[in-house]
Write a structure and sequence with these properties.
Length: 217
């Protein structure tokens, strides 16, 4: 079984000790920092914005994997490129012209990601899978950390893996929401390449140990 990339979601970090938690992730086996941006419109919650991401970027020693849960995300592509994001993921449900958004993200030198809400079929990506670097399958309805995993995400992971292989695409499959040591193994077996984990990493006694537990499943 391949070893998954692990992307701790800072949404569950201790914001009063953000530098400490960023450094703990730096000193762990984690691969990316997962950064959740929420606007209170696309999802019923606000997270944090540009000044906080700037502060994170100052200390982060691993690539920033930014997940935009905002309406009309094209407005912020340049901003997140300037903040040093490696990956920029937009929601299929938030884009009028997804193909154009993907091209714009790549033009700014970032990897282009598309996130799918639990209700969106992976088949909606059939005609642009060749243009996608990363597909983020939501394991929960986006907006909050600590929710329970929606089991159908496993079927979606298998279907997406098949589509990627069939299309000769090099897109990575990322699973976001409700991921922990109880489901990590079956997700990787189903085709997941990247596991995002918020509460499983930060609501634990040791950040490096919980990252390692997910990596070594
Ligand atoms: C949910 C966010 C996730 C969230 C995951 O809207 O996109 O990244 O932080 O948190 P857990 O791992 O606790 O489900
Ligand atoms: Zn996320």
């Amino acid at each position: 079984m391949p070893t998954p990339l692990i992307a701790p979601s800072l949404l569950s970090a201790d914001f009063a000790n953000l530098q400490r938690d960023v450094e703990a992730v730096n000193n762990s086996q984690a691969d990316w920092f997962h950064i959740d941006i929420m606007d209170g419109l696309f999802v019923p919650n606000l997270s944090y914005g540009v000044p906080v991401v700037k502060a994170i970027a100052k200390y982060a020693q691993k690539p920033l994997d930014v997940h935009l849960m905002i309406v009309d995300p094209d407005r912020y592509i340049q901003t997140f490129a300037e903040l040093g994001s490696a990956n920029l993921t937009v929601h299929l449900e938030a884009c009028k012209h997804l193909h154009r958004s993907l091209q714009a993200i790549k033009l700014f030198g970032m990897k282009a990601g598309v996130a799918l809400n639990p209700h969106s079929s992976v088949h909606l990506l059939q005609d642009c899978i060749a243009d996608i670097d990363l597909v983020c399958l939501m394991g929960v309805n986006p907006g909050f950390g600590g929710q329970s995993f929606i089991q159908n995400t496993l079927n979606k992971t298998r279907q997406l893996k098949e589509m990627i292989l069939r299309s000769n695409s090099s897109a990575l499959i990322e699973i976001d929401g409700g991921v922990g040591t109880t489901n990590a193994k079956e997700l990787v077996e189903a085709g997941a390449d990247v596991l995002v984990a918020g509460s499983a990493v930060f609501n634990s006694p040791s950040i490096p140990d919980s990252v390692l537990a997910l990596k070594n499943i």
